[in-house]
Amino acid sequence: MNSKWREIGAGLIVPVVLIALWQWVTSNGWVNPQVLPSPLAVVKKWIEYASPLEAYDPASMSRLAWIFSGELIRDTLGSMYRVVVGFLIGAGLALPLGLAMGSSQRVYAWMNPLIQVLRPIPPIAYIPLSILWFGLGNPPAVFLISIGAFFPVLMNTIAGVRHVDGIYIRAARNLGASQTTMFLRVMLPAAVPYILSGVRIGIGTAFIVVIVSEMIAVNNGLGFRILEAREYFWSDKIIAGMFSIGFLGLAIDLAMNKLNNHLLRWHRGLEN
């Protein structure tokens, strides 16, 4: 436990030093506060952003509903909804395709040329088509997020299945395992670390894409709020929104890391 706290403390040194330097520079008036507000101004704006909206009357709704009427909470929930739906669609399509391409040379030969053509195209390039096909609102955002999550999960799944140690496969064959048993009991478990790594990367990519899509296709969410603040030159709110994205991304990554460690307890190096 002590070592864990020491590790956390060591990780806080650089951010604390940078924030102190930032505060010192802004306090001395060396930069325009509209260009770079002080950390205290950003914290103040973040608190205002997270506070329940005055337009909502707590007497006319439940206390929980009033708390969740805060602009930051509503934007965060909107962004998370798009990330979850888009990621589930993208990963849900990528996982079976990746397993099929990894385990079958014929399917790999059929699909790989198309995948290699589409994979370098960034999800942002699909924005005009997504708006033409789906209009505005959640559908185009979910479509873009699905594309962003699809390829990391797909490529890691293919790599995981195709890089199973040949010793395991030969041992299973010598024991008389059928093709189905070999896939379910040998290839799939051995590919799980790759698949989970792809899932972790895919969620991170989905969160990046949702911010971009919200700046274009929807009228709420963290990305939309940052774009709105830019139009009114609210630099403190821009930075507050950026830090909100960073903290939310950190929480998602930590949760995925814990999930990976839990599911891979059997894996070499994680037994302890």
Automatic annotation (TrEMBL):
Give the protein name, as stated in the record.
ABC transporter permease
What's the protein's topology in the membrane? Multi-pass membrane protein
Keywords per UniProt: Cell membrane, Membrane, Transmembrane, Transmembrane helix, Transport
PANTHER family, per this entry? Answer: ALIPHATIC SULFONATES TRANSPORT PERMEASE PROTEIN SSUC-RELATED, ALKANE SULFONATE ABC TRANSPORTER-RELATED, MEMBRANE SUBUNIT
Q: Tell me where it resides.
A: Cell membrane
Could you tell me which species this protein originates from?
Undibacterium curvum
> In which broad location class does this protein mainly occur, judging by the first location in its UniProt entry?
membrane
Membrane spanning segments where?
A: 7-25, 80-102, 114-135, 141-161, 191-218, 238-256
Q: Which residues form the ABC transmembrane type-1 domain?
A: 76-260
By sequence similarity, the record places it as follows: Belongs to the binding-protein-dependent transport system permease family.
UniProt keyword Lyase present: no
